[in-house]
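Notes from the 1:1 (GR / supervisor)

We went over the backlog. Supervisor wanted to see one worked example end to end before approving the batch request, so GR pasted a single chain during the call. The sequence is below; no edits were made to it. Supervisor asked that the structure be written out right there so they could see what the output format looks like.
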Amino acid sequence: MQCQKKYLRVDRRQIGFIKFILEAYDGIANLTTIDAGLGIVSINIPEDCIDIVNNLLEILGRDILIEPLEERG
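Structure output shown during the call:
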């Protein structure tokens, strides 16, 4: 299955919370911390879950910092 990778800058104090929420939706996405100090994370999302994850991130982003970053090469 193909996956899309998103890089985000999030409130570093909320990395664990975001990871917990994604894990609660079994198999929806996998969050990896790239730089905890700067709040940089990557999320691998299966193609059939992209809309769900985007909606979830939009909702979470109303209360916590979640900013998309350019993809890394």
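Supervisor's comment: The mean pLDDT is 94.
Batch request approved.
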